[in-house]
Design a protein that fits this description.
Strand order of the largest sheet: 1-2-8-3-9-16-10-15
Shape: globular
CATH class of the largest domain: Alpha Beta
CATH topology of the largest domain: Aminopeptidase
Number of domains: 2
CATH architecture of the largest domain: 3-Layer(aba) Sandwich
Distance between the termini: 41 Å
Radius of gyration: 23 Å
Number of helices: 9
Number of strands: 18
CATH superfamily of the largest domain: Zn peptidases
Oligomer: single chain
Amino acid sequence: MDNSPLLERFLRYVKIDTMSDPHVSTQRPSSEGQLELLKMLKQELAALGIKELDLDTQGYLIARIPSNAGGKKIPTIGFMAHVDVADDVMGNGVKPRVIEAYDGQDIVLNHEYTLKVEDYPTLSEYVGTTLVVTDGNTLLGGDNKAGVAILVTLAERLMDPSAVVHGAVELIFTTDEEIGKGLDAFDVTKLRSRCCYTIDGSARGEIEAECFNAATVNVDFYGIPFHLGAAKGQMVNSVTMAAAFINALPQVESPEATEGREGYYCAEDIKGSIGHTKLILHLRDFDLETLKRRIAALESLSASVEALYVGGRVELKSEIIYLNMYDKIKEDPPVMEAIRQAGEKLGIVLQEKFIRGGTDGSRLTEMGIPTPNIFTGSHNLHSRYEWLALTAMTDALLLSEQVVVYWAKEGA
């Protein structure tokens, strides 16, 4: 088997159950496995010789790699990854499978699911290389344990006596990113970074400095329970109210019907009975004013449903959970120039894209530290068809290292 330290770390990390739980609000992190992995990472980083390590009870680990540049004044920069995985399909119990010297054919995951080249033609770019796939029952966890493995391996390289010249580098590991709570309790004053980079992207060469604006909307429908046999004129069914609300959402503005810069409404979770039904929606748009219009539309819809179901009641609460990071990042050109020059030096063709989603980087950007996103080599994220290309993951590591080199020269 390929003896890459990147691969070895990745395979170990994905086997730790760190799926975050959107229904847990009384503890942070939302799952115990996330803290278990953070503790493991702290031990590994300490074993590399890193002295400044801060793991707090809220689920944040900060490791500070010291400068090796003598007295040169070099700005501190950061890199960030999150340890949790999504729950779109099962994220725990991951059993990764390594395919060495991939032959370019369809990959049978199990008796029910096959990773087909026809459906995912990017596979053809990695014939002869090492891939990691799922067993078809869970996601893989490349989002974002590929990023975690890259950061620990970057730390190993920067702590080596023969490392490139660099200033201080902060590595930040977060939790609960997949449920939109990644930086909810983060103390940004602990950081010294002039800028930061999330290693949380997808295909080789993709970098992003733009993401959705995002809102979460909670809608509570309150009905009037009554004996079903005598319900006429008495009962108001909150489940029916919620169904009417969902059915009024424009299907053409749903995740499955949109692409590119198109925003959407998504009814993501519903639970209830006749007396009370709770609905959670996700709203996304690249334009903040349009996102606010979507919230206003749901407020109007709530009033309409309440008026139609006399005696019933609808309560809506909305929260903007992250903003498009582009406006802040474009004000600081060297942040992206570092990535571009690193890619040019390594011969990696970069594609500047936008994220139909968000990262902890968008939240950190709001806090005053511009934080674009770098690829990991992972594909089909949040899916049982997820796969990872080791050569692309290696390129992400080398690109990150050259970003460090850029800032060392910038501050020299």
